[in-house]
């Protein structure tokens, strides 16, 4: 069997997550990592190249897994790479997905490549669960909860406050809403009401903790409107207990098939590492995308377009015998 | 927009569940119900026909939803109907799925139709979750738990015991295993160990309850090897509290992306009515199958072959804008 030849573009946490995941897939071969930085050493020992060297790999890499950040990198990088390679990204800036899709679609169609965008866990696996549950239960209500997990953006925002040395913010879904939905209720609840913001803060010696706590809780666009809890801890405690980047969440749909006959569908992810799981989803869908490309499909696609069998390493016969 | 014209074959609990579900889908029209019995009255008022009249509807029905039982009906009915119509079933006799697939595939290919088999919640939605989670986390362990839900087969087996008037058996997954898996453990546990069999029994007046309880707990292939609990209740209590046909269950996968970095994926269904939810899955996939048939695909298929977008009533643009 010819292995699927993979390239990874971008080598931060997500790139390393994708690298680890490709190494677990028996039908894939990691050809190289492409980075803006020169001379990086990869975890697996696979060769690293600069972005400028990428075009030397035309015809030698089947799928490029793009591991840059959405806002700054992917919005330009995915169309640029799609002009030469079949590629996949985890673009997650929701309001710009349509714009990004159209840009990538145009570049990929012009080049005769296929590109899959917005493939991670949300957007990605959570999106799939929303589509499945809504198609099956058209009469009902869907909910998405995020966490318990680290929000990098909120952690950074706290760190910018005067007197803060370090900080970690967890987004935590409130059990009372989860349990109400599981019990067949359909609460009207906003994202602000549904989540708690749990903050672990290292203050500088002598800093005014009451002021810091107040600045956090009154920070617009980040904490105002949310129930926010602030814990002051030492740097040692933060390093010991809060260095991971766990995340996850829930997609639920509560619906009725006939009046009074209720069904609840729940999908839950508990992830020790957000970037490693996202990398794992990208890798599985790189397989599906490679199969799509072999069918001569060109343009932009999403997880909604890929038959589930195509992301599996197993044959259709094996899937029917063992997974159906 | 031309509506998808649906026929329902078989009019027991599942047929009525499919009927209710079709009525909730704005892009579908229920043309008729086909039954072995003559002169039945349908819940929705849609016309009922006998099986013999089915061929009069060639070209007038886009998808037939087959709602018979697996063991007795579908094994013969699906290939027979596939010889004339695009059709979908919920065949769930696991050991015979390959045989059934091959029979249906042959009939459908010869006739130039498409047929989707084994489409419900297990097999069906649970199967999809197993494939997704295993593709994303190749290093790990998958678990399926059923319940809390009524097992018709086990309820019937209890009713055949001398001195039993009525009975209802619930299969209940044990929380200790669910919680262990959610905590990242990977217990080795058999299906017998993982489930409790909870029995509600109405005994005849003067019947020996100790003997009945003993006969239940020692019944081979049904209860031996399981933790079994027997409650004796009155017919009134059974009619009041145990007349529903709820079911559901869990698919979990616990896996690692790098050593020590764990992820847990959980999919849970809580269904007030097993046949109504199964009917709802069949209906959503009837939409996907209709689209597959429009692509001139012929032969047998499963849920693994259908791009998720195809089961949705929404356009690709809408899905990207609102569900991704």
Key terms for this structure?
homodimer, 324 residues, alpha/beta, Rossmann fold, Dihydrodipicolinate Reductase, domain 2, seven-stranded parallel β-sheet, four-stranded mixed β-sheet, 14 strands, 36% helix
Structure report:
The structure is a homodimer of 324-residue chains. Chain A is α/β, with parallel strands linked by helices and 324 residues long. Chain A has two domains: 4-122 and 275-323, NAD(P)-binding Rossmann-like Domain (Rossmann fold), CATH 3.40.50.720; 133-273, Dihydrodipicolinate Reductase, domain 2 (2-Layer Sandwich). In chain A, 36% of the residues lie in helices and 27% in strands. Chain A has helices at 13-24, 70-82, 97-111, 125-136, 152-159, 175-182, 191-194, 209-217, 235-241, 274-294, 316-322; strands spanning 4-9, 28-35, 48-50, 63-66, 87-88, 114-116, 140-146, 149-150, 164-173, 195-203, 227-232, 247-258, 261-271, 299-301. A seven-stranded parallel sheet of chain A has the order 3-2-1-4-5-6-14, with helices on both faces. In chain A, strands 8-9-10-11 form a four-stranded mixed sheet. A three-stranded antiparallel sheet of chain A has the order 7-12-13, covered by helices on one side. In chain A, a hairpin with a 2-residue loop joins strand 12 and strand 13 (261-271). The radius of gyration of chain A is 22 Å and the shape is globular. The relative contact order of chain A is 0.16. Chains A and B meet through helix 1, helix 3, helix 4, strand 13 and helix 10 of A and helix 1, helix 3, helix 4, strand 13 and helix 10 of B. Strand 13 of chain A pairs antiparallel with strand 13 (261-271) of chain B.
